[in-house]
Design a protein that fits this description.
Structural class: mainly alpha
Number of helices: 12
Strand content: under 5%
GO molecular function, one term: hydrolase activity, acting on ester bonds
Pfam family, one: Per1
Function: Involved in the lipid remodeling steps of GPI-anchor maturation.
Main location: membrane
Subcellular location: Endomembrane system; Endoplasmic reticulum membrane
Helix content: 55-70%
Largest sheet: none
Length: about 350
């Protein structure tokens, strides 16, 4: 749960609002743990202890350790009694592994970080190669849009990893802000591509457009800093995210039509098509005519996977919940999407003189 804050890094303090927070067992356990473990320095609920190294590394204070222990203890007790698991502080109770709050969400966030990092390195090398061998500024401009998206994604998924490792108000806030930045960077990239603002003659339009996006994002962050509103933040991200998805689908359909013309379906695309087909070979044979529609399938996959968030079930074995499964699903699209972007750039440049 979240409520207004006066500082950007403390936007999301915990509040007692969930069913679990009001349970007498939880409150009694918390009070007893504090008196026993924090005041008397006597071990309490040792079955939920973590090693000393993880405790200090991840900044588990005595009160926060008590809070986590009591949530786990009450959840285990209710499960043994056949009672439903309930949320505490707006979150499901998890088992800690090496002091990590949400182990699988952390692991899958790292997976997302890794695939975006690899793509970032590849794009950096490609951009340097293009700069050295070509004077086509439009190609470099479009490649830079995807490089920025990848750089923002790397930062965003790093913040997500930190948050799921240790969910405190600061890390939770940064996770939300990082996600918002990724969504805006994605909207920027597809807008520049769809409206063809990467051409040299559209430089002024591109600068004005991107300045506008940056202004909107800054205003969004300032509004959250003044008064955190979870619903507003969700609606804002949905509008930007769905707009980007719509542009990706429209762009993909347009590319599919262009690909059927001889001027766009050239031998220059062969190396890029081969790489895409090689990555998709486990899904079966992929025809050339289907390649332009890859973003449609990827957006459909992501939209379907997003429904996992709506399920919001208690963690399986105290470890695997719907949110972690969503993070698992988001690992796969970048494996092919950025190769498709290279193919797409090559196709649009095929009709232009290098």
């Amino acid at each position: 749960m979240r409520h207004p804050g006066t500082s950007l890094v403390y936007l999301i303090p915990y509040v007692l609002a969930s069913i679990g927070d009001r349970l007498p067992q939880y409150r009694e356990c918390s009070a007893q743990c504090y008196e026993t473990q924090c005041v008397s320095h006597t071990p309490f609920l040792t079955e939920y202890d973590v090693n000393v190294f993880s405790k200090y590394l991840l900044l588990w204070t005595c009160p926060s350790d008590c809070d986590f222990k009591c949530r786990s203890h009450v959840a285990a007790t209710r499960k043994s009694q056949g009672l439903p698991i309930v949320q505490f502080h707006g979150k499901w109770p998890f088992h800690r592994i090496l002091g990590i709050t949400e182990f699988f969400s952390t692991l899958f966030s790292l997976g997302n970080f890794w695939v975006n990092w690899i793509n970032l390195i590849n794009y950096h090398a490609i951009i340097q190669k293009v700069k050295a061998s070509s004077r086509n500024k439009a190609r470099i401009v479009m490649l830079n849009q995807y490089w920025v998206l990848l750089a923002v994604s790397v930062c965003g998924w790093l913040l997500s990893t930190i948050f799921h490792t240790r969910d405190v108000p600061v890390t939770e806030t940064l996770d939300y802000l990082g996600a918002g930045a990724i969504i805006m960077a994605n909207f920027n990239a597809i807008s520049i591509r769809y409206f063809e603002l990467f051409w040299v003659e559209n430089q002024r339009k591109r600068i004005c457009f991107q300045a506008g996006l940056l202004f909107v994002l800054c205003c969004h962050y300032i509004k959250l800093a003044h008064k955190w509103d979870y619903r507003y933040n969700m609606e804002y991200n949905c509008v930007i995210g769905l707009s980007a998805s719509a542009l990706w689908v429209l762009h993909s359909i347009r590319v599919h039509k262009l690909f059927g013309t001889p001027t766009h379906n050239t031998i220059q695309l062969q190396p890029y098509e081969t790489k895409i087909r090689r990555k998709l070979r486990y899904l079966g044979k992929v025809r050339s005519r289907s390649i332009p529609l890859i973003p449609v399938f990827l957006n459909l996959f992501l939209t379907t996977s997003l429904s996992l968030e709506l399920l919001d079930f208690a963690p399986i074995a105290g470890l695997l919940d719907s949110h972690s499964l969503w993070h698992l699903c988001t690992i796969f699209p970048p494996l092919i999407w950025y190769d498709w972007n290279l193919w797409d750039i090559e196709m649009v440049m095929a009709t232009k003189s290098e």
